[in-house]
Amino acid sequence: MAEDNAEIGGTIEDEDEGSDDPNLEVQLTTFRAQWMSELKSSSGASGMSDRLLRAKGLKRTQDLAREEKATELFLRAVQEEQSGAVYEAIKFYRMAMQLVPDIEFKINYSRPADADRGGGNYNEDSDVDGEIEDLLAYFEQELTLESSFPKICNPELDTTQMHISALPREILMYIFRWVVSSELDMRALEQLSLVCRGFYICARDPEIWHSACVRVWGRNCTKVVPFKSWRDMFLQRPRVRFDGVYISKTSYIRQGEESLDGFYRAWHHVEYYRYLRFFPDGHVIMLTTPDDPLVIVPRLRTKNSRMDSALLGHFRLSQETDNQTKVFAVVSKKKEEKATEFQRNRFCRRNPPPEAEHSFHVGLHLSSGGCQSSNKLVWIHHSCHITYKLTGETVVTAFDLDRMYTPFFFARVKSYTAYSEQPL
């Protein structure tokens, strides 16, 4: 036992003495290298994740900054568009969409993006669709906030001559009445309102629209209800239009006479037109002719038409209980001098025919067809009244409204409102 212990102890002593073995050093070096490589790989992975997080955070910050800038530009564009600077608005819209293409759907219209920035004074009292409910009040408020003595408009460029903004508002309103003219060219007034905010306010003046309603429906038009304003009444209430002519085209095929040899019989295609031209003062012109509209329409511009076949008269609008608007007109031929007729019949032995006046009574139903309003007139009555001057007797002949009475359709004529003869 002692010998074995001695051997064991000797063995231990030998191993302790041989601790400088190069194999052990190689193993330790290999272990250290492997351990260092594992440490480096773990530290590299964590560093990579940190860099990715920092990159994502930086990108998000950049996206937020880009979106804020795009929001500011977009609100600035809205402001420029509302003030009438369309070209400036387009520039800011383009810059905003270059930063964020879908900025229009990300923006919040309820409040400004940043009150301290250029778009901070943007404020929109709007509904869900983002449209200003009362644009007139909005423009008036803007003009009041800009200056204690607001002008109707401001010159865009410096000029040595007097600008229209220097005129008093009363003079401008008189000019606007000349634009509307006695022909009630309200389309020109609406186009004039697109110039600037001040012109928009002047074009919405209630007195102008009230005067237009009185010209159409008479002096009994004193209440604006059930409409919101006089302008709404003029645009929505059914009425005849004065900036053009109502045209009815009728065509049919008629059998002709048989030829002399009896081998064939001719058929004729008959085509003619009826024209109705209404004027704001209550006058109306009615004409039946085979001539094309290109020939007739320019000759119906004024009431003083020199066409012998034209019938002149008056019309009125009637609002029935069933909310249907009807037009009633009485037209007759212009009175001609009897000198030539008397000269021709002076030596005739037969008695001259009794003098009589002919007038035609027309009833039409006003309706809308297609996308336009009040552009269709449908026949409901047509009769001829003959009044004998000697006896005072009146003979009435009513015509049957068959397929020959085709409806009238409105055609706008720009030349009718190209000139202003009188103000509204």
TrEMBL record:
InterPro entries in the record: F-box-like_dom_sf (IPR036047), F-box_dom (IPR001810), Hrt3/FBXO9_C (IPR045464)
Name of the protein this chain belongs to: F-box only protein
Region called Disordered, residue ranges: 1-24
Keyword Transport: no
GO CC field: cytoplasm; SCF ubiquitin ligase complex
Organism of origin: Sparus aurata (Gilthead sea bream)
Pfam families: F-box-like, FBO_C
Keywords of the record: Cytoplasm, TPR repeat, Ubl conjugation pathway
Gene behind the chain: FBXO9
Location, primary (coarse class): cytoplasm
